[in-house]
Amino acid sequence: MRKIEDANGREYTVHHWYILTNGWEYYQTEPTDGSIAFGYVMGDCGEWGSFSLDEMQGHIMASATGYELYEVAPPSGWKWEEEESQVEIQNFWKESEV
Known about the structure:
The protein is of the alpha+beta class. Helix content is 21%, strand content 40%.
């Protein structure tokens, strides 16, 4: 899981990420026990909704979960929660070098 923040400052937890052969990205924000998941979909436009993991099978080009999520870019206009603290650390080191 990885924490993410939207453009309005609302925080969510990403459990799984998928990219399909059509280029659409799915950020699953709720755990699932079945084949229906919920999350943010970045396709022609960004939207929230439910999606069928069964229907996606055969179209998944890549997926990530756990620590693999640290290799995934956030949706456009969003940021991973720790990105802000990484910038603060980088600025600290730059200031201390002067």
